[in-house]
Design goal:
Radius of gyration: 20 Å
Number of domains: 2
CATH class of the largest domain: Alpha Beta
CATH architecture of the largest domain: 3-Layer(aba) Sandwich
Shape: globular
Number of strands: 10
Strand content: 5-15%
Distance between the termini: 60 Å
Length: about 350
C-alpha cells in the first residue's frame, strides 16, 4: 500500500451544503468545529452577498457566526459541487426536484451524499435517498441520513445535543459521525438508513398531531398517550415496509427524535399543527409561519404508501383527513380518541 504523504494527511474534508435554512446553517456551524472546507449554496444571491460580507445567515439563526476561513457561499450550484467529497442536502423535500433539476448524474459521481431532509418527495411519495438513487444513480451505500434529536436553535446556542447518522454502510456512517462530533455535539452511527429516515419523516406528522390537539385545548396527559401510540404506529409501519433485525426504536435516533419534535417550542411542525387546531386554514398557517413544515407534505406521502400496506395508523389517518380532506379537527380527534390506549 502506498504511504500517504505527511502533508496530505491533514487536508480538510471538502463539503458542499445545499440549502439556506436554519438546519443547513446549524450543520455548517457544527462542521466548522472540525477540519473542513464548506461550499455553501443558497438560492438567493442577496443571502450569498450578505454572508460574504457579514459572515452570518441574514434569514435564519442570525446570531450564529460563520467562520469565513472555512465557509464560502455560492449562488451557482455547479460551483459549489466542484471538488467536494460530500454533498449535504438541506433543501425542503418538496423543493428538491426543482433545486436539482439542472444537475446530471455526473455532478454526484464519486461523491458521498448526506440527506439532512426530514421529508418525502411529494407526488412520487419517495424518500429523498431513494429519489437520489433513482434520478442521479447515487448508490445507497454512498448515502447516509442525519437524524436528531436536535433542533437547530439549540445548536446555535451550543447546547449539548446528539445526532444519529444512518447508513447501510456503517463505515460511512462512522466517518460522517466523526465530522459531526464536536464539544457540544455527539453523533452516533447506526446501520439503518431507511428506519432512521422513515422515523424522521413520521415524527413530523406526529408533531403536527400534537400541535393540533394542543390548539384544540387538550393537555399533556392526552399528548403523552398519543406519542406513545405513535411509536407503536411507527413500529408497525417499519416492520412491514422495511423490517430490520436489531433495530432499537427506543434509542435517541428514533424515540428521542420523536419526543423532541412532538414537545419542543422550536418544532415548526408542532407550531403548524397548533395553528390548525386554533382554526387557521392550511394556507394561512403556511403564510404566517414563513417556514416549511415537512409534515404537511409527508403525511400525504405516508398515507398513500400505506394504502398499499394497510398498516393500522390512526394518527396518520387523522392528520391526513384534517389537512387534505378538511375534516373538522375536533371531530377527527374525537374519533382518534377511540383508537388510543
Amino acid at each position: 500500500m502506498t504511504e500517504i504523504p505527511a502533508f496530505k494527511k491533514n487536508l480538510p474534508t471538502q463539503i458542499a451544503v445545499l440549502g439556506g435554512g436554519s438546519w443547513a446553517t446549524a450543520i455548517i456551524k457544527i462542521l466548522t468545529e472540525n477540519n473542513v472546507k464548506i461550499k455553501w449554496w443558497l438560492r438567493r444571491k442577496s443571502d450569498v452577498d450578505f454572508i460574504k460580507k457579514y459572515n452570518h445567515n441574514p434569514s435564519y439563526l442570525t446570531d450564529a457566526p460563520l467562520n469565513p476561513r472555512k465557509v464560502k457561499a455560492y449562488y451557482k450550484m455547479y460551483d459549489a459541487l466542484q471538488g467536494v467529497d460530500y454533498v449535504i442536502l438541506a433543501v425542503p423535500a418538496a423543493f428538491i426536484p426543482d433545486a436539482l433539476k439542472n444537475l446530471t448524474r455526473n455532478h454526484f459521481a464519486g461523491k458521498k451524499v448526506v440527506s439532512a431532509i426530514k421529508g418525502m418527495i411529494p407526488e412520487e411519495n419517495m424518500l429523498v435517498t431513494d429519489w437520489m438513487e433513482k434520478v442521479f444513480g447515487v448508490p445507497i451505500t454512498q448515502m447516509c441520513v442525519i437524524a436528531g434529536p436536535c433542533h437547530a436553535e439549540e445548536v446555535a446556542q451550543e447546547k449539548q445535543s446528539y445526532l444519529t447518522i444512518g447508513s447501510p454502510n456503517i463505515q460511512l456512517a462512522q466517518e460522517f459521525s466523526n465530522l459531526m462530533t464536536c464539544r457540544y455535539i455527539q453523533a452516533n452511527p447506526v446501520a439503518d438508513l431507511y428506519g432512521v429516515e422513515y422515523c424522521a419523516v413520521i415524527k413530523n406528522i406526529v408533531a403536527m398531531a400534537c400541535g393540533i390537539t394542543h390548539g384544540l385545548g387538550f393537555g399533556d396527559n392526552f399528548q403523552a398517550v398519543m406519542v406513545s401510540n405513535a411509536m407503536q404506529e411507527i413500529k408497525r409501519f417499519l416492520d412491514i415496509v422495511y423490517p430490520q433485525v436489531n433495530r432499537d426504536l427506543h434509542s435517541s435516533g428514533y424515540l428521542g427524535d420523536l419526543l423532541v419534535t412532538a414537545y419542543s417550542q422550536f418544532s415548526r411542525n408542532r407550531t403548524f399543527g397548533n395553528m390548525i387546531g386554533r382554526g387557521y386554514s392550511v394556507k394561512s398557517a403556511q403564510i404566517e409561519m414563513n417556514m416549511v413544515a415537512e409534515g404537511y407534505y409527508a403525511v400525504k406521502s405516508i398515507y398513500k404508501i400505506n394504502e398499499q400496506h394497510d398498516v393500522e395508523m390512526p394518527i396518520i389517518d387523522s392528520v391526513y383527513r384534517i389537512l387534505y380532506e378538511k375534516a373538522n379537527p375536533m371531530a377527527e380527534i374525537g374519533v382518534l380518541k377511540g383508537f388510543l390506549k
